[in-house]
Amino acid sequence: PVFAGMKGSAIENFSCVIYSIFLMNCTWQAGRDAPADTQYFLYWQQSRDEEEMECELYIKDENCRNVGCIFQNVSIGIEKAYFLVNGSSNNSLIQFYDEYIDLYKIEKLMPPSNITVNCDEIKNDCIIQWQRPQISHSSKDMCFKYEINIKYK
């Protein structure tokens, strides 16, 4: 495909992570050959049925250039989400960058909660219990693997 805009002006190293159940953070770097006055804008669409929305809370670098976005109240659906970052400059056309992302693949899981340990010295055993981490998406019955490190003091 032919991309309108100056070669090397599109953003680089785009990545997103979902954390604390409903927050999402996306970051990028300015294109290597983008003019100094280039400003970038992020649009995203959670699914084909939903409207495309612009980022509401940009992360800026020291030159006031948008280099990321913080999203609140994100919920993970079954469709891939669509991300588009375009740019504007007074000097030249800026290439856009776009990507489809499966949101469940970028979720950083919370730790398990309500961890309790009950040890019985007579039987010489311990029962460790916890609640599974809260997750952003609806597939509540997915398998979790847990690792327990026990250090004896």
TrEMBL record:
<keyword id="KW-0732">Signal</keyword>
<dbReference type="InterPro" id="IPR036116">
    <property type="entry name" value="FN3_sf"/>
</dbReference>
<keyword id="KW-0472">Membrane</keyword>
<feature type="domain" description="Type I cytokine receptor cytokine-binding">
    <location>
        <begin position="13"/>
        <end position="106"/>
    </location>
</feature>
<keyword id="KW-0812">Transmembrane</keyword>
<dbReference type="InterPro" id="IPR013783">
    <property type="entry name" value="Ig-like_fold"/>
</dbReference>
<keyword id="KW-0325">Glycoprotein</keyword>
<keyword id="KW-0675">Receptor</keyword>
<dbReference type="InterPro" id="IPR003532">
    <property type="entry name" value="Short_hematopoietin_rcpt_2_CS"/>
</dbReference>
<dbReference type="Pfam" id="PF09240">
    <property type="entry name" value="IL6Ra-bind"/>
</dbReference>
<dbReference type="GO" id="GO:0004896">
    <property type="term" value="F:cytokine receptor activity"/>
</dbReference>
<dbReference type="GO" id="GO:0009897">
    <property type="term" value="C:external side of plasma membrane"/>
</dbReference>
<keyword id="KW-1133">Transmembrane helix</keyword>
<dbReference type="InterPro" id="IPR015321">
    <property type="entry name" value="TypeI_recpt_CBD"/>
</dbReference>
<protein>
    <submittedName>
        <fullName>CSF2R factor</fullName>
    </submittedName>
</protein>
